[in-house]
Structure formats: structure tokens, C-alpha cells
Amino acid sequence: MTAPAKDMIVGRVRSFPMFADLVGEDVDALAALMAYREFRKGSFIVAQHDSNSMMYLLLSGRVKVTLASPTDASLHFTIWRHRRSSVR
């Protein structure tokens, strides 16, 4: 990972309240495990029943989660939007 990419990820990690208590080297260690990805509108990021060990942090835009019911009779939709943090 390039230094500018790592610096950007570290800055973004610090903007999430769930990581607020992490200190310098802990943030660096977490950032070293991360990668920055962009997805186009309408892209599928994960699919139901994927065995995936990834965690996604929404930095901008919005994501819609669609989950089929066990009987496939209905769908549940949830939309998350990124809210800008005052921390940069």
C-alpha cells in the first residue's frame, strides 16, 4: 500500500466513532488490513449466503441491502447513507 493510500485510510478510520478509542499503532495495524474500493451504482458487493470474512465501511454514497425471506414471499430493504463526520 502506498503511503498516501495508507494515510487516507488511517484518516477515514479515525472518522468512524466505533474506532474512536484506538490509538496510533492500533489504527495503523487496522489500516494495514484494509483496502480502499469504489463500487459503481447498482453493483453487487456481497450476495446472500456468501461465506465472506470482509467488513465494509461506507465512506460516501449509500448502499441498499436486499434480503429474501426464507419462503421467498417477500423482500426486506434497508438503505444506509453515509453521514459526513466533522472529523477529517
Please, could you describe this protein's structure?
The chain has 88 residues and is α+β, with helices and mostly antiparallel strands. The chain has two helices and two strands, in the order ααββ. Helix content is 24%, strand content 16%. It has a two-stranded antiparallel ribbon. Strand 1 and strand 2 form a beta hairpin. Helix 1 (3-14) packs across helix 2 (24-32). The radius of gyration is 16 Å and the shape is elongated.
Query: How many angstroms does the end-to-end distance come to?
Result: 21 Å
Write down the Rg: 16 Å
Quaternary structure annotation? single chain
Uncertain runs with pLDDT below 50, 5 residues or more?
none
Order of helices and strands: HHEE
**Average predicted local confidence, pLDDT:** 78
> Biggest sheet, strands in spatial order?
1-2
Envelope shape: elongated
Q: What summary fits the major beta sheet?
A: 2 strands, antiparallel
Amount of beta strand: 15-25%
Individual helix count: 2
Which percent range fits the helix content?
10-25%
State the total count of DSSP E strands: 2
Question: Into how many domains do the coordinates divide?
Answer: 1
Helix and strand content put the structural class at alpha+beta
